[in-house]
């Protein structure tokens, strides 16, 4: 997560391509779910870097939705809703 956060920070003034955004959302969601299933505590998973990455991807998602007309089934919000259900 630190590597991804650093990569996104280095590109703060650049928008992500739609393909990059979709892939990064899937990676972050899968990583979060997999570690949670392995029993990693929420306090460890919800680090400051995770919040930074999540906020950036959410912002990029909103920008892409306006610019491209939607994300076609990929969303950071999905992972929030799934976490609240389980």
Automatic annotation (TrEMBL):
One of its GO terms (cellular component) is presynapse. Residues 1-35 form the MUN domain. GO terms for biological process: dense core granule exocytosis; positive regulation of exocytosis; synaptic vesicle exocytosis. This is MUN domain-containing protein. It comes from Champsocephalus gunnari.
